[in-house]
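FIELD: query
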Amino acid sequence: MTSEATPVRFEKWQALGNDYLILEGRDLAFPLSAEAVRRLCSRHFGPGADGVLVVFPPDELGFVARLRIFNPDGSEAELSGNGAREAILYLRRAGWTRSDTFSIQTVAGEIRPTITGPTTCRVDMGRAHVRSKDYPSGPADGIGEIAGFAFQHVSIGNPQCAIHIPDRATLERLDLPTIGPPIEHDARFPNRTNVSFFTATGASTIRARIFERGVGETLSSGTGACGAAVAHVLRGGDSPVTVELDGGELLVDVDETLQVQLSGWAEPVYRGQLSQELVAALRETDVG
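FIELD: result
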């Protein structure tokens, strides 16, 4: 951690309304505790955001940076599609790399983005799986039933529970704040789960609403879009899949091996510096 006199700078970025604070690990002057993350994400007592991204120098050769991702409840996420794009474009603008294609370490493993424009990139999200440690009792096809819905389990760096809804009108009427929590916390998902509700609007287009683990209903989720797109393709839909979310559209390419590419935009909102008073309060939080 840096000394007390060193300013702690941050940037706020957003992608389809999903906003994150980005900090550099070498500038931190406080522990990355759950309490500190919750304070930073508070829209009344901190800068406010849907999560926190912290970039560190890599600890392995061949990587540009190591990325840690935190939810607003203080828990650490394995991966975030929107957060990853924000971090990727931040790293490029902040001079961590001049390459268009590079690798980043995450808790979920390596991600390999390609910069496609000033505010756009494509991210190789890796291969999706329908069997994983996040649904250990699940069948080989990852299909189950929960809360009266049939669902498709998808692991794409983090756990996804993708629920197909027969028509758009029914999808739009769903009360996600009521339906989402019992699914997120169902005992079959030992690490909790993200939940996407989707309906097909065409052979290669879907409308999705997202209930994100540790967040609640959100305007957008990149990995949630990926989970819904994979489930759509497994149901016979075409790829690439355009996913319409409350915050905008993402493009998800799913190949025959379930290798997933996520394309979309992200942009900075503002730069700031944490006050000495806030840093002092964050420094007093417990590690954990």
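FIELD: remark
The chain has a mean pLDDT of 95.
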